[in-house]
Design goal:
By secondary structure, the chain is mostly beta strands. The strands form 2 sheets. Strands 2, 4, 5, 6, 9, 10 and 11 form a 7-stranded mixed sheet that branches. It has a 4-stranded antiparallel sheet with strand order 1-3-8-7, with no helix packed on it. It has strands at 2-7, 10-12, 18-26, 30-39, 46-51, 57-59, 67-72, 77-82, 91-100, 106-110, 114-118.
């Protein structure tokens, strides 16, 4: 009974910026960790960034200094601000959340994925 809906993907030129959003809805008592993963063609899904309920963050070395993850707890939404984009950032980006429902049950949920293409 929980859904994660992503938005904000698209086509941008190298050096450009894009902001992804992911909103959680449904039976939500609390959300612990929220994050972003990506999967490029022919590659495995990898962690891009994560943020805890307390605001601690973690980034992949490849995006450190260029990407910023943040969250709005009032909206149950996580964001990924992507700056100085490179062609190698091209991938499908998936949001992820560790959500505790009203029963006190913690489960991992995934968004549907949004395409980010960086090309001239």
């Amino acid at each position: 009974q929980v859904q994660l809906v992503e938005s904000g993907g698209g086509l941008v030129q190298p050096g450009g910026s894009l902001r992804l959003s992911c909103a959680a809805s449904g039976n939500i008592f609390s959300i612990n960790v929220m994050g972003w993963y990506r999967q490029a063609p022919g590659k495995q899904r990898e962690l891009v960034a994560a943020i805890t309920s307390g605001g601690s963050t973690n980034y992949a070395d490849s995006v450190k200094g260029r990407f910023t993850i943040s969250r709005d707890n009032a909206k149950n939404t996580v964001y990924l601000q992507m700056n100085s984009l490179k062609p190698e950032d091209t991938a499908v980006y998936y949001c992820n959340a560790d959500i505790q429902g009203s029963y006190g049950f913690g489960l991992i949920y995934w968004g549907q994925g949004t395409q980010v293409t960086v090309s001239s």
